[in-house]
Amino acid sequence: MKIATFNINNINNRLDILLVWLAVAKPDVVCLQELKAAHKMFPQMAIEKAGYGAIWLGQPTWNGVAILARGGEPVMTRNELPGDPSDAQSRYIEAAVNGVIVACLYGPNGNPQPGPKFTYKLAWHERFNGHAAELFKTGLPVVLAGDYNIVPEPRDIYASRSYDDNALVQPESRAAFRRLLDQGWVDAIRKVHPKDTVYTFWDYRRNRWQRDAGLRLDHILLSKKMARRLVDAGVDRDVRGLEGASDHAPVWAEIKD
């Protein structure tokens, strides 16, 4: 099973790029973030024509998440992150796919910080960590995949002082990610590439793609059962270089059946 996560940054504007990548990479499960489309505007027919069933949670202009399954239909198990009924932002969706629980998340950016957006970011990740702990306790094969909007360590960002005040790299953000790993989840990219520099996001500004001035924001975390079956993991960097591409590249992990 090949599981991937891809912040598509507007699914309708970049549908052609998504479809080409699906045809070439052939992931079995895909978690998408930043659909930036109302629920009824999700391109379901095009996705189905490409061979994928889908569930999604749309939202106009911002946010939006989806889970795709090649040759099958994801079975939705949750369409919101528990813990705050007043939270109307479309950031979390969960499904069962071929015996695996797949959680797709789009963590809050949190900028500017300090401020209410950063407070929301930290509270959201606290809720997410609580739910992740419950999933981990089940002992089931579980994947937590998405754009966490957290740079876990200094080595996960290019040498720069321009992000010093950014919510993505703050100690509180990194501590939230560390607490998640401390539950027992395995970071697929770091498991396969423990010492390599790996980026998944390159801002459009200041020629950051051309300079390889990247950040690692997109992560696939595996429960113990899944981690034992991990074969490989990587980033499809070439997708970021396509004309009109998202500022993120797809991240994937290959799991032995």
Reconstruct the topology from this structure.
Elements: E1 2-7, H1 15-25, E2 29-33, H2 44-49, E3 52-57, E4 65-70, E5 75-78, E6 92-97, E7 100-106, H3 116-137, E8 142-147, H4 171-182, E9 186-187, H5 188-192, E10 218-222, H6 224-227, E11 230-235, E12 251-255
Parallel strand pairs: 1-2, 7-8
Antiparallel strand pairs: 1-12, 2-4, 3-4, 5-6, 6-7, 8-10, 9-10, 11-12
Helix pairs in contact: 3-4
Summarize the structure.
By secondary structure, the chain is α+β, with helices and mostly antiparallel strands. The chain is 23% helix and 25% strand.
CATH topology name: Deoxyribonuclease I, Chain A
Rg measurement, Å: 17 Å
Basic shape: globular
**Count of distinct strands:** 12
GO molecular function: DNA binding; double-stranded DNA 3'-5' DNA exonuclease activity; endonuclease activity; metal ion binding
Site (Transition state stabilizer): 149
Site (Important for catalytic activity): 218
Organism: Neomesorhizobium albiziae
Would you mind describing this structure in some detail?
- The protein has 257 residues and is of the alpha+beta class.
- It has a single domain, classed as 4-Layer Sandwich (Deoxyribonuclease I, Chain A).
- Helix content is 23%, strand content 25%.
- It is built from six helices and twelve strands.
- The strands form two sheets. A six-stranded mixed beta sheet has the order 3-4-2-1-12-11. A six-stranded mixed beta sheet has the order 5-6-7-8-10-9.
- β1 (2-7), α1 (15-25) and β2 form a beta-alpha-beta unit.
- The longest helix is centred in the middle third of the chain and has 22 residues, at 116-137.
- The mean pLDDT is 98.
- Residues 4-248 form the Endonuclease/exonuclease/phosphatase domain.
